[in-house]
């Protein structure tokens, strides 16, 4: 579709955030920040995507200031002067190219120890009820699953207060650095998601027990962030049905249950729901062609963002197993759904690794690149 007609290139405003098009770089963990400090290579990595025309960059997961937030020393932090100065350089470089950028704040919760077995045994993973989750279809290896399956103590009320405060502190630090909003990783079995999932939240207090109470912790995090960053900056919230412990898990089996999960988050301050699925065009519930991003928008009235296998014929999990991913030109279907306002933004991950100027490629109608995991995930920039 010509640029002048393509809904991919319509501008969008979310609070103070003004986007030149609807193309977003999806968050992807890179582990290129030794000591948690993003360096010059990270600056260049994000700058190139902004220079290529991408409107909004959602960074890789960024650790909040909590002892068990992230178990990989090469994942960047959102605390400490060195890390914040590194992020300031990233933000300035992206802005200089006309792009916008938000950090994805991250606490791995029950999945502590998945990135490395060399974790401090004196530290307790943050788990709502002390359990890792109901094992199902997973890509994790046997050794990690055996280690992680051992029960730990449940999060205390003090733990909950500390983590909420750490999220709010990280968001305030990001705002000071100059980021254009805040993103939260609330999917895939990580901490925020683990409170929503009945497979990890068995609490019977105010933080669990039924679907309504299971939403209270992530909603409290969102509300704390909103109170610290004010009304100008938007909040993005990634959620998912699937969990890394079990790809067949669900937090909502019906649209009504999805509304019960997402509405408290919208009321707390979420502006955009980032619906993480394997394929952006996959129907979410039986009897409807509407995607998870489409349902998120419909049941909350908030904006939504789709993600998953744009231009690629295999899911992320499949491409990891196979190494490469054949091209699938599903851009016309993407444009159709965007044009019908089913969702408002499209986040693209793997093709942004294969082609830093992906937005320009889409704008000009050039041939889509083929993603090769062995080449593109290992590439520094």
TrEMBL record:
MF terms (GO), sorted A to Z: FMN binding; NADP binding; NADPH dehydrogenase activity
InterPro entries registered for this protein in UniProt: Aldolase_TIM (IPR013785), OxRdtase_FMN_N (IPR001155), YqjM-like (IPR044152)
Enzyme Commission numbers on file: 1.-.-.-
TM segment ranges: none
Keywords: Flavoprotein, FMN, NADP, Oxidoreductase
NADH:flavin oxidoreductase/NADH oxidase N-terminal domain segment(s): 8-366
Species this protein is from: Rhodococcus gordoniae
The protein, known as: NADH:flavin oxidoreductase/NADH oxidase
Domain of life of the organism encoding this protein: Bacteria
PANTHER family the UniProt entry points to: NADPH DEHYDROGENASE C23G7.10C-RELATED
Required co-factors: FMN
């Amino acid at each position: 579709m010509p640029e002048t007609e393509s809904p991919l290139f319509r501008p969008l405003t979310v609070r103070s955030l003004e986007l030149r098009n609807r193309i977003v770089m999806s968050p992807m963990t890179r582990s290129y920040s030794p000591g948690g400090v993003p360096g010059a290579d990270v600056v260049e990595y994000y700058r190139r995507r902004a220079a290529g025309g991408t409107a909004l960059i959602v960074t890789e997961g960024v650790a909040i200031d909590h002892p068990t937030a992230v178990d990989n020393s090469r994942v960047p932090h959102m605390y400490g002067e060195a890390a914040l100065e590194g992020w300031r350089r990233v933000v300035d470089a992206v802005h200089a190219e006309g792009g916008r950028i938000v950090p994805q704040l991250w606490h791995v919760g029950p999945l502590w120890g998945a990135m490395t077995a060399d974790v401090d045994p004196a530290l307790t993973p943050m788990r709502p009820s002390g359990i890792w989750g109901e094992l199902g279809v997973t890509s994790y290896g046997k050794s990690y699953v055996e280690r992680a399956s051992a029960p730990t103590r449940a999060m205390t009320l003090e733990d909950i207060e500390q983590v909420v405060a750490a999220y709010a502190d990280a968001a305030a630090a990001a705002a000071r650095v100059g980021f254009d909003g805040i993103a939260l990783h609330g999917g895939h079995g990580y901490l925020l998601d683990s409170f929503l999932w009945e497979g990890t939240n068995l609490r019977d207090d105010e933080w669990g027990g039924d679907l309504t109470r299971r939403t209270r912790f992530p909603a409290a995090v969102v509300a704390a962030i909103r109170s610290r960053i004010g009304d100008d900056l938007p909040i993005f919230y990634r959620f998912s049905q699937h969990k890394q412990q079990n790809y067949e898990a669900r937090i909502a089996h019906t649209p009504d249950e999805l509304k019960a999960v997402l509405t408290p988050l919208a009321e707390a301050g979420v502006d955009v729901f980032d619906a993480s699925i394997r394929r952006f065009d996959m129907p979410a519930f039986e009897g409807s062609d509407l995607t998870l991003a489409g349902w998120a928008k419909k049941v909350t009235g908030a904006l939504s963002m789709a993600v998953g296998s744009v231009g690629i014929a295999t899911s992320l999990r499949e491409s990891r197993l196979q190494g490469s991913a054949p091209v699938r030109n599903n851009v016309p279907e993407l444009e159709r759904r965007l044009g019908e306002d089913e969702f408002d933004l499209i986040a693209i991950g793997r093709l942004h690794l294969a082609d830093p100027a992906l937005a320009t490629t889409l704008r000009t109608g050039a041939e889509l690149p083929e993603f090769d995991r062995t080449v593109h995930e290992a590439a520094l920039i």
